[in-house]
Design brief:
Helices cover about 45% and strands about 10% of the residues. It has about 350 residues and is of the alpha/beta class. The chain is built from 14 helices and 9 strands. The protein binds S-adenosyl-L-homocysteine (SAH).
Length: about 350
């Protein structure tokens, strides 16, 4: 089959063989990509129309007990100026976000032991009490199933936990030995069992990644069928072991976004900040390739530059929640509609 046929097939059957994925990922021409992006966009619009959902990202802490080789807030990075938001600060972010039209709040952070189950439950229930029409998404790394259960009980709706790579050996190249690939995957399973809308995901072009791994990522998405999937290019951070590595490819990220959309037409797929950081119009390109979520930054402005997962991270302009009106205009001029809905997955079964 040529690539056009493969793309048509993927759109109809939502699956390809290992060899076919490899073929598509390695041999797609610029024309194939245009065709692929169009097919993915059409698949998205069949479910969601022109609506793009927006989420307010609140970066609650950059203190982390982990030491992931790629991440700028890793424990060993002594150059990182640490902060932690107070409960009051987090609630103020939500208050401001609500006024700006946000109906999903994403609490993301390093694995900071200060945020115990009790404290998080208190914060989540307060948010849900004040803004009962809003969804709360957590992105706080690996916790116990019991913890996930309590946070769900307190009102959390969704959880983002990128698995980072599906390949166990590659996982070992990205993380110190203490961090276990099995545990990462077990957490995703536990989150699902607790009733969350679950988001997994991976970086594109992280050191040591090859196309065979990306093929396996797509096959994993087919099997796991996550409600959400976060993917973005790897971007080096100078004060990490990967500081001298090169960034992932925007073209390949867009190609993968489209494949994921065709595999799961109803998936919630963000055009990520990493994509926007590497490419001027990365957000729009991501959406044109099948993404349907954007996550502007709603953190207090004085901490934004401290939550530096990678260098040159975009947090001004369209990345800033305060400029959601400009984002709205940008979307409109590109033919999309920034939707004020909560934006849950619209899955038929
Ligand atoms: N501690 C939380 C949140 C992590 S930050 C957790 O473990 O889920 C969110 C995501 O940023 C990570 O999952 C990772 O995929 C991404 N990230 C971290 N460093 C990055 C880098 N240098 N380039 C691109 N993405 C990165």
């Amino acid at each position: 089959m040529n690539n056009t046929k493969l793309i048509d097939f993927l759109g109809q059957k939502h699956t390809l063989s290992q060899e076919q994925y490899r073929e598509l990922l390695t041999t797609a021409t610029a024309e194939d990509d245009t065709y692929l992006h169009k097919a993915a966009r059409a698949a998205c619009e069949k479910v969601y129309g022109k609506r793009i959902f927006y989420r307010g990202l609140i970066e609650i802490s950059n203190i982390c007990k982990n030491d992931c080789y790629y991440c700028g807030i890793r424990r060993s990075n002594t150059a990182c100026e640490r902060y932690r938001l107070s409960q009051q600060q987090i609630l103020s972010c939500c208050e401001e976000g609500y006024k700006l039209g946000f109906r999903t709040f994403v609490l993301q952070g390093g694995e900071d032991g200060f945020f115990t189950d009790n404290l998080l439950c208190e914060i989540i229930s307060k948010i849900k009490r004040s803004y009962s029409d809003c969804a709360v998404t957590l992105s706080l790394g690996e916790r116990s199933k019991e913890s996930y259960r309590q946070l769900k009980e307190a009102g959390a709706d969704r959880y983002l936990l990128r698995h980072e790579t599906i390949d166990p050996t590659h996982y070992g190249q990205l993380h110190p030995r203490q961090m276990k690939h099995e545990n990462r995957l077990a957490c995703l399973q536990a989150l699902r069992e607790c009733g969350y809308q679950v988001g997994c995901g991976f970086m594109v072009g992280s050191p040591g990644q090859d196309v065979g791994m990306l093929v396996k990522e797509l096959m994993f998405i087919e099997k796991f069928r996550p409600e959400m999937c976060g993917i973005g290019p790897f971007i080096p951070h100078k004060d990490t072991p990967f500081g001298q590595q090169k960034a992932g490819s925007v073209t390949l990220t867009l190609r993968l976004l489209s494949c994921i959309r065709l595999i799961c037409p109803d998936i919630l797929l963000p055009a990520t900040t990493a994509l926007a950081s590497l490419s001027e119009d990365g957000r729009i390109k991501g959406i044109e390739a099948g993404a349907n979520v954007v996550m502007p930054n709603l953190s207090p402005s004085d901490v934004r530059e401290k939550y530096t997962l990678y260098n040159n991270k975009a947090y001004a302009g369209h990345e800033s929640a305060q400029q959601v009106q400009q984002l709205q205009q940008l979307m409109q001029s590109a033919g999309f509609l920034l939707s004020c809905e909560r934006g849950d997955i619209e899955r038929k079964m």
